[in-house]
């Protein structure tokens, strides 16, 4: 799984989950809005990306509560994230 933040300028900032199933991601850089070290961001309004190969959400920095861009989470997907979600909700396992 690859996570990064897409700034409104289009610049990509790498991010990672601090631990499995964390409710926030940690940026590889300081907060772009307030400069907080190792900024944490939370995504809201999760949706599939335009190319259907990732999840995206509006990202808000927890340090200053400011909108910082779009959080994009690229998963390895066979059919696109929506189709995968449908397949997995049926309880079908793919090997
Ligand atoms: Zn901040």
3D architecture notes:
With 95 residues, the chain is mainly beta. Helices cover 9% and strands 40% of the residues. The protein contains one helix and six strands, in the order ββββββα. It has a six-stranded antiparallel β-barrel. A hairpin with a 5-residue loop joins β4 and β5. The longest helix is centred in the last third of the chain and has 9 residues. The protein is elongated and about 45 Å long. The two termini are 18 Å apart. The relative contact order is 0.21. The chain binds zinc ion. Zinc ion binds next to loops.
Short description:
This protein is mostly beta strands and 95 residues long. Helix content is 9%, strand content 40%. The protein has one helix at 81-89, and strands at residues 2-6, 12-16, 25-27, 40-48, 54-61, 67-74.
Question: What's the topology here?
Answer:
Layout: E1 2-6, E2 12-16, E3 25-27, E4 40-48, E5 54-61, E6 67-74, H1 81-89
This protein binds zinc ion.
Shape: elongated
Give the number of helices: 1
Strand order of the largest sheet: 1-2-3-4-5-6
SSE arrangement, N to C: EEEEEEH
Mean of pLDDT: 91
Radius of gyration: 14 Å
Outline the low-pLDDT stretches: none
Strand content: 35-45%
Helix content: under 10%
**Gap between N and C termini:** 18 Å
Number of strands: 6
Structural class of the secondary elements? Answer: mainly beta
Note the main sheet. 6 strands, antiparallel, barrel
The bound ligands are: zinc ion
Core attributes:
1 helix, 40% strand, 95 residues, binds zinc ion, 6 strands, 6-stranded antiparallel β-barrel, mainly beta
């Amino acid at each position: 799984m690859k996570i990064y933040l897409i700034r409104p300028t289009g610049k990509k900032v790498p991010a990672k989950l601090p631990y499995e199933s964390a409710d926030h991601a940690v940026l590889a850089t300081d907060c772009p809005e307030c400069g907080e070290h190792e900024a944490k961001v939370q995504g809201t309004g999760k949706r599939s990306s335009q190319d259907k190969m990732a999840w995206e959400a509006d990202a808000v920095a927890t340090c200053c509560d400011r909108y910082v861009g779009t959080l994009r989470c690229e998963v390895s997907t066979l059919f696109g994230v929506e189709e995968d979600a449908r397949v997995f909700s049926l309880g079908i396992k793919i090997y």
